[in-house]
Amino acid sequence: MSFIRLAVCISGVYAMFLLWAIAQERLSVPFERIDGTGSDKFKSPLFMGTCQSALSALSALIYILLRRKRSDTLSQSLGLVHKDASAPTSNGKHHHHKPDPRYSVKSLLLRYAQCSIFITSAAPFGFAALSYISYPAMVLGKSCKLVPVMIMNVLLYRRKFAPHKYLVVFMVTTGITIFMGFGNDSKKGKAKAANVNTTPYANLIGMTYLLINLASDGAINSTQDEIFSRHKVTGQQMISLLSVLPLPYIPVIHPSAGGQTELAGAIAFIQSHPSIIVPLAQFALTGALGQLFIFETLQHFGSLTLVTITLTRKLFTMLLSVVVYKHKLTPGQWLGTAVVFAGISVEAFVKRKEVHAKRVIQEKEKAKLKSL
């Protein structure tokens, strides 16, 4: 059953974010003004994230309301109250247990707020980094996302991992780095070069923004792991309460004309460029459905598995293009692919041994019960 669930999660993430990437690419080109005097690019990544987050929360809330039991209150359906907190006793009366601080609503909402702040902060720093470093450098940095996720899990929540997990993270990160490093991204890098700042400290500033972005991503995933393990909520419950917060005008990470907030600038752009509405809706809808699959993966398999899926998505997409469109990979890219698949194989081999060991233990327990 867990294998089928994992397969569905992987398929959902791959399919939804492939369509999401198409919509995102459409949003990166200029849109014609309503008066026909010219065209402009939409430069409001935080607003795009807010639209996606709002639709994700709405879709998760609808899912929860459709599947909840009639006896459940809204707070119970949202995971804010645990059902065993007021469980009925043998005589039919409700006995209220002393509240456990680990499951307190205040603690849960604080974690949600912390996660929302990390989510809100990550994207602007990522976009700001592209003003100082090249696109290939950004992709290489992002390919190492498994490392900050594991570091933040250890530093923030003292979480320990099995020894083979460290090996898998190292192999997947190394393989993806090799794959991206030996790719034919020179044209893309030249296309971005015109927008890259060339000041003496540009690389230092860009790498600083990228490190902040990666640290925020690691904090997001580790905090989500902590919420799942400590508060026992579902993926749909989490996504229904998480949101992207509106940031004030901060020139360093998202400059805008006239010193107006990104929200005000985005609304003004939509009013003067109505043709953006359809691709923006497609971006938000596919992203929202993709988030449901992402949080389902987080709930049942953890952040390391999720990040492995999202990082290998581009690799598998490029491999598919090799088969379908007869594209060619460099020897270095084939080496990177082999290292990634070796890392995934280590994880699969260990998981298979664990499942086999559990079955053996269950069979022995059943044999003991029959002999009694």
UniProtKB/TrEMBL annotation:
Record keyword Ion transport present: no
Keyword terms, alphabetized: Endoplasmic reticulum, Membrane, Sugar transport, Transmembrane, Transmembrane helix, Transport
Species this protein is from: Ephemerocybe angulata
Protein localization: Endoplasmic reticulum membrane
Coiled-coil regions listed in the entry: none
Signal sequence, start to end: none
Gene Ontology molecular function, alphabetical: UDP-galactose transmembrane transporter activity; UDP-glucose transmembrane transporter activity
Pfam families for this protein: UAA
UniProt main location, coarse: endoplasmic reticulum
Protein name: UDP-galactose transporter homolog 1
